[in-house]
Design goal:
The chain is of the alpha/beta class. The chain is about 55% helix and about 15% strand. The protein is built from eleven helices and nine strands. β1, α1 and β2 form a beta-alpha-beta unit. The longest helix is centred in the first third of the chain and has 23 residues. About 35% of the residues are buried.
């Protein structure tokens, strides 16, 4: 089953998108539980997170929304959004407590929160050349929706901190070499790679599932850990000085220009 993100002309993690994602997750759980009650397997074994916007997976957090909350002193609204994001990503990480595997299918640029969401999945498939990274440092912030927690389960913490502190944007090719991306596809071939992975997984499901289960045992992650970090993110956002808010404003305009919005 696939969830296609589409918030055109602003391809970011808007509050509406996150509510839709949460509703999708609840629907999946209802279907799975109904099948379990009947003693049969659900009609799907994978949840795929993808984008409906060509060339862009997502540009990350909704900067316009962040600006409105910060300048309007609406800490409660920003916190509600942040906690919703954590609920969605943690349940994605936990496979909704169902017999499922999650896959992120990246066919376009994935920045900030989009990268964090991908990292919450069991498997990341990305096309060569797409740009991925955490640019938040340019407006004096950090990725707070699970970046450190999720990424440090794949690479060394020192590398994670370097990625966050520098704000460097990587290609999928580079992240594949680092061990962050699981499957590297040729441009335009991500869906082909997805089908090939599903076929291969079905032939060696026991081994692959055991490896993922071992990773969870060795590097456990709790919802409370994500919550503490995201509340730190909210506090930091609300304390941003005007010069950083102006930089965020410029990025909003640059994103609009990229999407052809006047």
């Amino acid at each position: 089953m696939q969830f296609n993100m589409n918030t055109y002309p602003h391809p970011s993690f808007t509050p509406a998108l996150m509510r839709d994602f949460r509703s999708f997750q609840k629907s999946v759980v209802e279907v799975c539980e109904a099948h379990k009650a009947e003693g049969v397997r659900p009609p799907f074994g994978f949840l795929v997170m993808a984008s409906a916007i060509p060339g862009i997976h997502s540009l990350g957090g909704d900067l316009g929304f962040f600006l409105a909350c910060i300048r309007g002193g609406q800490r409660d609204v920003l916190e509600e959004y942040a906690l919703l994001c954590i609920d969605v990503l943690y349940d994605n990480y936990a496979n909704l407590n169902q017999d499922l595997r999650t896959i992120s299918l990246i066919e376009g640029d994935a920045l900030g929160a989009a990268f964090e969401a991908a990292l919450s999945c069991d498997v990341i498939i990305a096309e060569k050349g797409v740009k991925i990274g955490f640019p938040e440092v340019v407006f004096n912030m950090f990725p707070g929706m699970g970046a450190y927690s999720f990424l440090s389960r794949r690479i060394a913490p020192a590398q994670v901190e370097r990625m966050i502190n520098t704000g460097r944007i990587y290609t999928a090719d580079e992240l594949y070499e680092l061990g962050v991306i699981d499957i590297l596809a040729e441009p335009g071939e991500a869906k082909v790679a997805l089908r090939q992975f599903v076929r291969k997984h079905s032939r060696s499901a026991m081994t692959r599932n055991a490896v993922l289960a071992m990773r969870d045992e060795v590097f456990p992650l709790t919802h409370d850990e994500l919550k503490r970090i995201v509340l730190l993110w909210v506090d930091s956002a609300m304390a941003l000085p005007e010069r950083d808010l102006k930089m965020m404003e410029r990025l909003v305009k640059a994103q609009a220009k990229k999407m052809g919005v006047g």
